[in-house]
Sequence to fold (210 residues):
Amino acid sequence: MSIKLSFSNTRQDLTGQSKIWGCPDLPDTLPYPEIPYEEDGEKHADPMSFICQIRLEDIADIDRDNILPHQGMLYFFGEMDYFLGNFDAPNYPGMGEWPSQYFRVLYSPSCDNLNTHSIVDADGELLCRPAESISFYPCNDGEDDFKLLGRPFFSEVEELYPYMVSLFQMDCNDNWNLMFHDSGMLNFLISPDDLKNQNFNNAICYLHSF
Fold:
């Protein structure tokens, strides 16, 4: 069974809670992911876009087969600027399987002692969308929309990775001006063995569109 995600605007403090967008709450053991690049012969790094964090105790009642851990926090990062409408963004990961420097899946076994990481511009303004709360519901394995676990919605992706689990699937969303080209979807995929052993750093990321 897969787990569907729905999102709500809220004034609630979402520090340490499940949320999409906003700023991640990371333990000291997990540095904020960056995208390396070179300019004029010098090496630099830009902060990667934070997508969401999942407080895993929130999905424990739905994940009855214990596919995911039921404690700690699972984080998803990816280079999202282009897909949120910034077509001049310097980093575009492309279609198909993304190079590893453009995404990251992190896991903290504990939700204690987390620190909020805020990425701001020169004027101190946050460089992110406002955080929204996440609710979770059971759904069928091959559904579209935003979901955890199960199979990718697109059969083309499942055929390419027949033995992998769709750890997290992202769909287009008009409220955020989020478009993966022509009605595409982004899947974070992981092998059953890596999922069982909590090797989330071995996940891959694949963008498919019509």
In short: The longest strand covers residues 132-139. The mean pLDDT is 94. Residues 155-160 form the longest helix (6 residues).
